[in-house]
Amino acid sequence: MSDSEKPMEMKKGRSDQTVLLDCTLDQDGGVLKEIVTPGVGEDTPLAGDKVKVHYIGSLTNGTKFDSSRDRDEFFEFTIGKGEVIKAWDLGVATMKKGEKAILTCRPEYAYGEAGAGADIPPNSTLLFEVELFDWKGEDISPKKHPGTIIRRILTQGEGFKTPAEGNTVDVHLIGTYKGRVFEDREVQFTVGEASEENVIEGIDHGIRKFKKGEKSRLQIKSSLAYGSAGNGEFDIPADADLTYEVELKNLEKTLKESWEMNDEEKLDQSEMVKTKGTNYFKAGKYKLAVKQYKKITDYLEQSVKDMDNMQKDKGNALLVAAYLNMAMCHLKDEIYHEVATNCDKALELDENNVKGLFRRGQARFAMKDYDGAERDYAKAISFDPENKVVKKQLMITRQKLKDFKENEKKKYFGMFSKFAEMDSKEKGKNMPYHVKSDEKDKQADVMENVEEWENKMADGMMSLEQEAEAFGEEVKPKTEAQNDETTNGDVTEDGEVIDH
Q1: CB within 10 Å: which end of the chain, N or C, has fewer?
Q2: pLDDT digits over 8-55, tens only?
Q3: Is position 234 annotated as part of the catalytic site?
Q4: Which sign does the torsion angle of CA 482, 485, 488, 493 carry?
Q5: Is 111 a catalytic residue?
């Protein structure tokens, strides 16, 4: 019996003992399933899972109109997304791994009154032999980290609204590691700031795909959980992948979207998040601080150019402060290319900004771009000739440049002297002008053993206390409680971040 004949033959061979499962929600007989080969296990695909199947499609008269087996390639689709006819979404969701079944699909669950091309007439009941090979959950990971969050929906949510950055959510979390429940709690947090409530990054990101009332199982890689540090309180080892059952119980939209705000609201909101970012910075939470400052750029970058003059001046000042504060956060985390990028943006708005030049100079110095650092410091001095700290940093940078050039000169002088000596020996032997294989090895050793000139950020980087002095910023005395903090952070009256 050929594959093309199976569906019709099986239908003809049904007896009174044939068990047919109604797969429809209303139990109206619109999608009936007959199991040909039972599957294994108890699991079945969930909404959002991507399934891999083989199928043969036939009309009730036995005419085959399509077959993945004839093409010798699996067919894949996502359950519940409307990528296939309704009968498939319902029927395949009832199947177990390895199961083969016949789906009988009435027209309203297939192609309806329209039919499909020349092969499927209008109002056709269809037969599909389907074999389910495998499935996998929906990848809802951040774009830069695919495969780190896999979702399987246990209970569908309602409506279309999903949480966004800044929304407040109420969730129920059940965390497991190798089958052991280590966390079971109700928690409320602000999306984007979940770490404030000891909620891992994977949930903070994944919850943005949930609808109200949804319950899903999330498989979260260690990089978005407790990482290489693990968690002693929960007895989670380093680099452990976790499973969470997450239910979004409530969602409150606490902020307007940027497009919903007028110019005045954007400026007011920017002031608020700047203060919030500064508080995070003072607590040493630089990534959270950056998120707040980034909101200012989201609010204002595109809209400030269309504001009136007074609003534009205020908006540009807020943008410059946001860029410089982000630069300082990245400086603390030693992400120097981001420091330079944010300083570039600040300097586009205020090309004479001494602090922007100084911080970009620090980033370039740390990345060993001493020529670039020297240019930044020299330009900063041209706008603030009496700034002693910038003068000192410029002097240190020029000394580094001098040392670097002298060191390079010595290295290459030594190499060329060695090559000249080898060349002389070769010529002394009256041999053709070339280097023998053993001498080539010696040359390689010379090149390999040339020491790379080392420089660390501490070698010449000004303390940030000196930086505060350089810009005439008053450093507020710390309280006893502040002395116990992990960071030495403070701000000036205009909200600029200052490190002691």
Answers
A1: N
A2: 444 444 555 678 999 999 999 999 999 999 999 999 999 999 999 999
A3: no
A4: negative
A5: yes
